[in-house]
Amino acid sequence: MKPLVTIHDVSKSYGKVQALQHVSLEVMPGEIFGIIGPDGSGKTSLFRMLTTLLYPDEGAITVNGFDTVKDYKAIRRCVGYMPGRFSLYPDLSVEENLEFFATLFGTTVQENYRLIEAIYKQIEPFKKRKAGKLSGGMKQKLALSCALIHKPVVLFLDEPTTGVDPVSRKEFWEMLRRLKQEGITMLVSTPYLDEIKSCDRMAFLYQGELKGIDTPAVMLERFADILCPPGLQREEAVLQQEYAIEVKDLVKRFGDFTAVDHISFSVRKGEIFGFLGANGAGKTTAMRMLCGLSYPTEGTGTVAGFDINTQQEEIKKHIGYMSQKFSLYDDLKVWENIRLFAGIYGLDETVIRERTEEVLKELGLEKERDTLVRSLPLGWKQRLAFSVATFHRPEIVFLDEPTGGVDPKTRRQFWELIYRAADRGITVFVTTHYMDEAEFCGRVSIMVDGCIRVLGTPEELKRTFGEKDMDGVFHRLAREATRKSD
Amino acid sequence: MKQFWAFVKIEFYHIFRDKRTMLILLGMPVIQIVLFGFAISTELKNSRVGVLDPVSDRTTRRIVERLDENRYFDVVCYLHDPQEIEDAFRQGKVDVVVQFSPDFENNLYHTGNAGLQLVVDATDPNTATMAANYAQGVMATALQEEGQAQVAIQTHLLFNPQMKSAYNFVPGVMGLILMLICAMMTAVSIVREKETGTMEVLLVSPIRSVFIILAKAVPYLVLSGINLTTILLLSVYVLHVPVAGSLLLLAFLSFLLIAVALALGLFVSCLVDNQVAAMLISGMVLMMPVMLLSGMIFPTESMPVVLLWLSDIIPAKWYILAVKKVMIEGLGLVAVWKEIIILSVMAVALIVLSLVKFKDRLE
């Protein structure tokens, strides 16, 4: 059998930055071929070359027998492409998007409806809704339908499940497996280990280099130190009796929609509390109330000893906050970022100087003091952001999906930092989409449809539900959800 | 072809579904016309006149009366001492002072060295010049009636005797609006596709890139047509600026400018990749020169020579020049051939340039 996609010794650089170095691989017809690699490993550059959007600097690529440089027009007729962002028109309805993409490829929705039927049926009830108003999972299904509507020979999916909750991710991969039976070849990149296991073969890209190609089982073993680092061991910390967070019957309504529905829980000082839930379960809304950013509609609670209804300004002084979306200023140097945030919390000049040295030493960033944050690797940025968020020694630090987009090893290093902070007595309140991280928490809660469905240590939860890992527990609960929105 | 129309259709959806943008696009010409027509007028209105007439006689009274009767001037006070003139200005009581020499009438008829001084508040030089010129005109007429035409300096203002500013800014607003809508909106709408990620998918589809570009241009062409009509209707019926020349020629000129603007917008969209940058570049690089250098507000004739060269490369300048000739002076094709050629060359050059620059790849 002849390979459908061949990549031969391809290199690509942007100015001084080497994105890909001498990458070669072949994809057989009918295969689901996975590419795993952290942010900045060159996945997107590879996809853009495959889809004829970029020229390779060196080497050659063929897709379906056509060269990506010379015969790019032929390739554009026979491939489907889902770029990293959902490439939909947010102001067009579901139906209009699908029709537009069908016309674009010179076909009609009816002609290939059978191929997308299983996927499109799930979003058809919302066909009059604007694409911009859909949840992440539904956008993804629509984008996949649009990419499939002209019955491509090969489908290129560049991180199709980023920003999508675990349940939707599972459903997405079930669809890909059905498409495989239709004979469609797929190249998929993903940062998630559980997804890569569903591929027939996989390649591991790391800093622009291809580290190896094989079946997922072999690869995960060969690169275990990066892809599956050993679990974190932590001695059971002696928790203090006092509570850092205590809330009772917290409710938040937006009009007649109840986003958070009577949640009650308490977190002890020094605890690492995992706050889990699918997209739209109400995590962010609940977290905003705890951070003093919005008033609860009903209910009472204290954070760091201050009332969430009346002492919001006091709360803000005693907590730290880090989120994936906003944490550091890219165009400031490392020390300038530290200086800025320390200044915001009104720390003393000498204290700032002392602690800056401490932090840089702890992170091993002493040499990078004058580097612009923009040019740091993502994993370093995340650790720096964490240190900045805890710089003023808050009683509690809130982390909103702090480890997106990096490889498992780097995530592990981040959690070591969390453990160290917890050992110093800082309470950690963390949300994450990675279920292996849920296992690192002291206790976790899982929100479903605005309520806290379960709460306990990871061990307790696994025992209760008879599942072998937190992933199983989470999916069993998340499938109960009736609410589907972001 | 079906792909093309599907494209045009969604482009219209984009415009209609974004109510705010649509309101701005269709409301902007109205607001600009109203603003320039009524608020930011450089016309003279009710200039307050002070009179210093040491020996009030029949001739001087006659001249002052004439001035007062005129609807652009109000005689508000009489001064008695040259020293009061400066105070009157300082206190903001007057805009213009008319000072007669002592024994004006006698000198006028006998010695022939009667003096008349006009003092004008020149903090706003445009208004000052206009006030001075117009007051001179009024007084000259008054003197003429006295049979003293030989003394008076004759001022005659062509086309715009009251120097109505509408004659100047209607063509200016037309140039500005067409430039703004076509260039900025085309740039923004292409860049938006880059931002949403749809551009990547469009490029990896069999559609030809020239179709993408044309489909983007069609809706804005239609909108520009609507705007042009609005401006012309407003200027004829609200501001009473007639269209003296051929409407067809006017439409043709506008079409040329639209072509230039669309190409410019396309060119901008090739350079940037987010909507804010597209707005800023179209705003700063395209709009400011149009406002300041095209002769819309400041006459190009009085510019330093370097700026004059610069103004030559601004398409709107040629458009405004041509529109003035056709619309205000009522001249025909022969009078504007130079502008037509310049605009055509610009249009062709820019379209070729931006088509070459628009890549069907990402690099």
What's the helix and strand layout?
The complex is a heterodimer of chains A (486) and B (363).
Chain A: E1 5-14, E2 17-27, E3 32-36, H1 43-50, E4 58-63, E5 66-67, H2 72-78, E6 79-82, H3 94-104, H4 113-123, H5 136-148, E7 154-158, H6 166-181, E8 185-190, H7 193-196, E9 201-206, E10 209-214, H8 216-222, H9 224-227, E11 243-254, E12 257-268, E13 272-277, H10 283-290, E14 298-303, E15 306-307, H11 312-318, E16 319-323, H12 334-344, H13 349-363, H14 378-389, E17 396-400, H15 408-423, E18 427-431, H16 435-438, E19 443-448, E20 451-456, H17 458-465, H18 470-478
Parallel strand pairs in A: 3-8, 3-9, 6-7, 7-8, 13-18, 13-19, 16-17, 17-18
Antiparallel strand pairs in A: 1-2, 1-4, 4-5, 9-10, 11-12, 11-14, 14-15, 19-20
Helix pairs in contact in A: 3-5, 4-5, 14-15
Chain B: H1 2-17, H2 19-39, E1 47-52, H3 58-69, E2 73-79, H4 82-90, E3 96-100, H5 104-111, E4 116-120, H6 125-145, H7 166-196, H8 198-203, H9 209-237, H10 247-271, H11 275-293, H12 305-312, H13 315-328, H14 337-357
Parallel strand pairs in B: 1-2, 1-3
Antiparallel strand pairs in B: 3-4
